[in-house]
Amino acid sequence: MLKRHVLITLQGVTLATTIGLLIWMMFAAARNAQQTSGLQVNFALLVAGLTIGFIVLSIVLLTKWLSRKKSSWLVTVFIGLTLLKLPLLGLFKIAPTSDFWNYHALAAFSAQGLTWKQLFLKGAIGNYVIFPHAINIANFFSLGTAFWGSAFVISQLINIACTLLDLFLIYWLVARWLSRPLGIAAALSFNWIPAYWLYSSLLNGAEPIFLTCLLIAMLALTNMVQPLPTATPNDHWVNFTIALLASFVANMVRPIMIIWLIALVFLGTGVWLHGRGPLPRSSVKGFSLFIVSLAGLMLISSPVYNWLYGFNVAPNRVSTAYSLATGTDPKTDGAYDAALMTTVTHELKVAPVSGRTYTKIAAKMTQQTQRQLDELSKAGRWGPFLSRKMQKFMAEDYGYDWVLYNLGHQRSQQARNHWWLWSRGFWNWLALIYFEILMAVALISSCLGGYLLWRRHDHYLNQYFFYATLLLAGFTISNMFVEVQGRYHIILYLPLIFLGICGWATLKSRAWRVKTVKTASNQRLS
């Protein structure tokens, strides 16, 4: 009985935290759009509203239609939706800047035969020695450029291919958890996110690779813990290996997988508190071994990178110290600070890549963080600071803006560039409305989850709500400590969709109205 009370308390606190965060996030996204996106109540809003209506209607109708069709139709629709992105590549020529240029240039150099050590000795790596995840991103893109050439369109096609794979992975994952129709709805909801649709089609960001690896890890771990009826004994270790490698690769490009690991620990604790139920003992042992193995790999990631690239990258503590210093900077509201980067650049020029240099950078960043924390505390500015920081984090105009900043300036492109600038209101309204709908649905679903937890402590959906809220709360709260920008909240799309699907499943099951008979199929995570 005590275990059951502890589990209900954990689930209730997580749901309550998520509800509070979602309300804050919705206001922050709207406030940011009002201040920075130049949104007005005009014709662009009308067109965006009609487009949203079409998107929602297409999700509902396609879900109902595909649920009754064979899988071949599903494959055809997913491929067709992905092919809609290809005309963008011809219409808008991208001349990458900032990190996007660095990823592309380093990938091209590597594909041409230069080793990473040679690039380092030539000075091409630059400040990325303290951000090894950026080198990892370029390295992954170099695999594509080595086979198909160094044109920027290759990186664009890689990301588009990742988004196609994501549709299948989300579908398979949710279908394994709940049902085929809900898997279809989840995949279609993800496909139509306007800001991410633009960003993943036209730019070579790391987020598509990260999400694909995370989804592969989630699906493989699900198959390991709850084997398919056709699974063989060897499949357990195949799925274990796939989940472990995919998780490590995801952490290589976005070193935030510690949040997922913590969520898994809490989820595993929830399963233990509830009782193992129908889960095989081998699955429980494999799940525990996975958590320990992934934690071990994360701890030794720096030596792995040193071996992989042939020079000493900075230990994880250096990039963490920099991100904390940036994330607590009241001058930039937790966003990029050129002055801090200048400090890092100066130290690396004085003594490139040495243990003393890395230690000195970490110490300076830690001192800067402490000064900023003292300043925020003494002036009583934590509330306004976190409010502005959340606004930057929830900026849903990242898709339009990053495309705008990276448009090519060829004479032949001028007319299209002018049209892109003119259409700003439409794209940003479209992105904001869809994002607000996602969060509103997740908020309603979380409230349903709270009511379900109160009415039916032992219902199988409580564990799914627990997992989704752990992810949303974990990734949101952790970003309040480190550097933020709009595209960093892309990871939140997954738990938002998972929450919405859990709410839909709750309504369909009528579990919130009458008691249902539990079956082995609905106890997968309970």
Automatic annotation (TrEMBL):
Keywords: Cell membrane, Glycosyltransferase, Membrane, Transferase, Transmembrane, Transmembrane helix. It is a multi-pass membrane protein. Its main location: membrane. The chain crosses the membrane at residues 43-62, 74-94, 128-148, 154-174, 181-199, 205-225, 259-275, 287-308, 426-452, 464-482, 488-507. The keyword Coiled coil does not apply. It is found in: Cell membrane. PANTHER family: MANNOSYLTRANSFERASE YKCB-RELATED, MEMBRANE PROTEIN. This is Integral membrane protein. It comes from Lactiplantibacillus daoliensis.
